[in-house]
Amino acid sequence: MTPAPDSTAATSSPGLVVEAVSHAFGPEPVLTEVSFALPAGKVGCLIGPSGCGKSTLLAMIGGLSRPDQGRIVHAFVRPAFAFQDPCLLPWRDARQNIAFGLKALPMGRTERDARAERLLGIVGLSEDDGDKFPHELSGGMRQRVALARALAIDPDLVLLDEPFSALDVGLRRQMQALVQRLIDARGLTTVLVTHDLAEAVRMADRIVVLSPRPARVAALHDIAVPHAARDDGFVHAEVGRLLADPATARALAVEPEASR
Ligand SMILES: Nc1ncnc2c1ncn2[C@@H]1O[C@H](COP(=O)(O)OP(=O)(O)OP(=O)(O)O)[C@@H](O)[C@H]1O
């Protein structure tokens, strides 16, 4: 990751630029000249077939690894991750899990506890839930704790790797709406990895469609309609419109909508 010239001013940041990123694990190429940009404060979705390299690219955006070639430029300084597996510490209760990442910050115990308490409420958990250990929480509640833990560090970049895919449909919709509200309220630049085109249409400002491995950018789609106006009818119609694009349909291994 190459810091952009002004690495302190996330709010005036030009956003995220992925520039001709190529990567291989051993002899096997995973990413081939992947390029796209995402303006600050927007939600980008990476979508593509299983194993094409979405998580690899997300990890690079978060600074966890470096591409063999190309570069990733942004001025964000506090990236936060949330994954399909909430990865909670089983020996700590929900409140302590939320506060865990704050220990690395110069922040006293009282402030850490207050922030964790506030976040419990923000993600829709009760004070009693805060006392529970991960095995005492439902899958949806564990995902809420993971989300609160990600937000606790006051991130300027949120990286979500299929955080809803283990949840049933109703819960997934609830969590999508919650995440959308939280990132909208904070104007957080977000990159979401998903397999679900409807989820991408519901949440993204820009959809980056990746081809099968080694991933290239097969198509880019911008969705200008405000998130709050994306009802089921809109999502259904938009998914159809995107799948009518042969490059998108080919990458996602579905028949183009028009020829069905
Ligand atoms: N550290 C690693 N070492 C070797 N190969 C790896 C490593 N990480 C990922 N891979 C391989 O790179 C390819 C891309 O993996 P990645 O997890 O990025 O794909 P993905 O698109 O996120 O997949 P999925 O949608 O199934 O989660 C896969 O074939 C994977 O096995």
Describe what you observe in this structure.
- With 260 residues, this protein is α/β, with parallel strands linked by helices.
- Helices cover 34% and strands 23% of the residues.
- It is built from 9 helices and 10 strands.
- It has a 6-stranded mixed beta sheet, with helices on both faces. A 4-stranded mixed beta sheet has the order 1-5-2-3, with helices on one face.
- The longest helix is centred in the C-terminal third of the chain and has 18 residues, at 169-186.
- The protein is globular, with a radius of gyration of 19 Å.
- The termini are far apart.
- The model is unreliable at 1-12 (pLDDT under 50).
- It binds adenosine-5'-triphosphate.
- The site of adenosine-5'-triphosphate has 11 residues, from helix 1.
- Belongs to the ABC transporter superfamily.
- One of its GO terms (molecular function) is ATP binding.
- This is ABC transporter ATP-binding protein.
- Keywords: ATP-binding, Nucleotide-binding, Transport.
- Residues 16-237 form the ABC transporter domain.
* SSE series: EEEEHEEHHHHEHEHEEHH
Overall SS class:
alpha/beta
Small molecules (ligands, ions, cofactors) in the structure:
adenosine-5'-triphosphate
N-end to C-end Cα span: 42 Å
Q: Helix coverage percent of residues?
A: 25-40%
Overall pLDDT metric: 88
Helical element count?
Answer: 9
Largest sheet: 6 strands, mixed
Q: What overall geometry do the principal axes of the alpha carbons give?
A: globular
Strand content: 15-25%
Count of strand segments: 10
Radius of gyration: 19 Å
Q: Which consecutive residue ranges, at least 5 long each, have pLDDT under 50? A: 1-12
- Read across the widest sheet, the strand sequence of neighbours is 6-7-8-4-9-10
